[in-house]
From TrEMBL:
GO terms for molecular function: 8-oxo-7,8-dihydroguanine DNA N-glycosylase activity; damaged DNA binding; DNA-(apurinic or apyrimidinic site) endonuclease activity; lyase activity; zinc ion binding. Belongs to the FPG family. This is Putative DNA glycosylase. Residues 2-131 form the Formamidopyrimidine-DNA glycosylase catalytic domain. PANTHER family: FORMAMIDOPYRIMIDINE-DNA GLYCOSYLASE (PTHR22993). InterPro entries: FPG_cat, FPG_N, H2TH_FPG, Ribosomal_uS13-like_H2TH. GO terms for biological process: base-excision repair. It catalyses: Hydrolysis of DNA containing ring-opened 7-methylguanine residues, releasing 2,6-diamino-4-hydroxy-5-(N-methyl)formamidopyrimidine.
Length: 264
C-alpha cells in the first residue's frame, strides 16, 4: 500500500494548490465522510501536510478551518493538475481508469479544460477513504524523523515481533510492509525478534535506519525504491549486502523478505 514515502511525494506535488479556492467537488460517497462536498466547496486551500501515510489538505472556510484527510488504502494514488507524481505504484497496476476515481476536486484558478480536476484520488480497490477532520492524534512519531528515544518509548512493554510493532501506526507513523523490511534489513535486525528483547543499540539502529534509509528512497522519487527490489522480493534472491540467499517468510501474516546472515 502507499506508505509515508509516497504520501510525502504527493504532499510536495499538491503544494502548488495552496491559495486556490475550491469551485466544485465530486466524491464517491461510499468512501467519504457525509457532507464532505458542502463543507469544502468555496473554501480556500490553506495548506497541504502529511501525517504518516495520510495526506492532509487544510481548508479555510467562512466558518473556520477544516481538514480533508486522504487515506490511500492499498492502491490509491494522487493526480494533481492532470499529472501523476508517481506514475506507477510498485504493488499496483499502472492503469488509470475514470471509474476508479474516488475524489475529483476543481479550483477556480484552473487554466486547464474544465474536465481536468486540480486534484484526483484514483483507487482501483476502493480501500482508501476521504475524511473530514479525521482524528490523527493516535498516530505515532513520523518515520522520517524518528528518534531513538521516541522509538524506545513506543516499544516499551510490547512483546510482538519487531516487524509487527513497526507496522502499527500508533508506534511509528508512515511505515508499511516494504519500508519495514528495508529498515530492518538496513539495521541488521531479524523481523521476527520480539520487540521487548531488543537492546538499546538495536533500537537506535532501527531509528537511525529510518532517518537515513527512507530519505534516500524518497530522493529516488518513486514507489519504495529500496535495495530489496521487487525482483529480489519475488524470487528471494541474494542479499545485496552479503550475497546470502534471502529468506521469504510470514511475520504477523505479512510477506517478509530478510537476510538470515546479517539480520540477527
Amino acid at each position: 500500500m502507499p506508505e509515508g514515502l509516497e504520501a510525502e511525494i504527493w504532499r510536495v506535488a499538491a503544494s502548488p494548490l495552496v491559495g486556490r479556492t475550491v469551485s466544485d467537488v465530486w466524491v464517491d460517497e461510499r468512501v467519504a465522510s457525509v457532507g464532505l462536498r458542502d463543507a469544502v466547496v468555496g473554501a480556500e486551500i490553506a495548506g497541504v501536510d502529511r501525517v504518516g501515510k495520510v495526506l492532509v489538505v487544510e481548508m479555510q472556510t467562512s466558518t473556520g478551518r477544516t481538514k480533508l484527510g486522504l487515506h490511500f488504502g492499498m492502491t490509491g494514488r494522487l493526480v494533481v493538475d492532470g499529472d501523476a507524481a508517481i506514475e506507477r505504484l510498485e504493488y499496483a497496476s499502472g492503469a488509470d481508469r475514470p471509474s476508479w476515481d474516488r475524489l475529483r476536486l476543481w479550483t477556480e484558478r484552473d487554466h486547464r479544460p474544465a474536465d481536468v480536476p486540480s486534484l484526483r484520488l484514483n483507487d482501483p480497490r476502493r480501500l482508501g477513504r476521504i475524511s473530514l477532520d479525521a482524528d490523527l492524534t493516535q498516530l505515532g512519531p513520523d518515520a522520517l524523523t524518528l528518534t531513538s528515544a521516541e522509538l524506545r518509548r513506543r516499544l516499551s512493554g510490547r512483546r510482538v515481533a519487531i516487524k509487527t510493532a513497526l507496522l502499527d501506526q500508533s508506534v511509528v507513523a508512515g511505515l508499511g510492509n516494504l519500508c519495514v523490511d528495508e529498515v530492518l534489513w538496513t539495521a541488521g535486525i531479524a523481523p521476527h525478534r520480539p520487540s521487548d528483547r531488543l537492546d538499546a543499540a538495536e533500537v537506535t539502529a532501527i531509528a537511525r535506519a529510518c532517518r537515513r534509509r527512507l530519505p534516500v528512497m524518497l530522493r529516488r522519487g518513486g514507489s519504495t525504491m529500496g535495495e530489496l527490489t521487487p525482483e529480489l522480493r519475488r524470487v528471494a534472491g541474494d542479499c545485496p549486502l552479503d550475497g546470502t540467499p534471502l529468506t521469504r517468510s510470514k511475520v504477523g501474516g505479512r510477506t517478509t523478505v530478510w537476510c538470515p546472515h546479517h539480520q540477527l
